[in-house]
Amino acid sequence: MDSVFKAIADPNRRKILKMLKRRDLSVSDIQKHFDFTGATLSHHLDALKRANLVVTERRGQFIFYSLNTSVLEEVLSAFYSFFSK
Question: Does domain 2-83 sit in CATH 3.40.640.10?
Fold first, then answer.
């Protein structure tokens, strides 16, 4: 769970997650929304993958990222448990 909180602590990673909420995206699709380098984007995507917040799928020569909804549900459940009586 610590890796999840560390991953979502960064505003750029939260923006990536928000984008993936709408649809699966390739790295080049994601890169269009940021001014930082490809290496920096790779670092952010790796952090999201290590936290199991995103999953990847190869489609031809491209890798697409999508939300791992089961982990997001687990995080929401943990928050609910923390704040409920």
Answer: no
Which three-class secondary structure state does DSSP give residue 64? strand
Task: Indicate the average pLDDT of the chain.
Answer: 91
- Rounded Cα–Cα distance for residues 5 and 23 (Å): 23
- The domain ranges of the chain are 2-83
Average pLDDT over residues 53-70: 94
CB atoms within 10 A of CB 47: 20
Sequence-distant contacts of 59-62: CB under 8 A, at least 24 apart: 62/26, 62/27, 62/28
Whole-angstrom distance, CA of residue 42 vs CA of residue 59? 18
Distance CA 7, CA 16 (A): 11
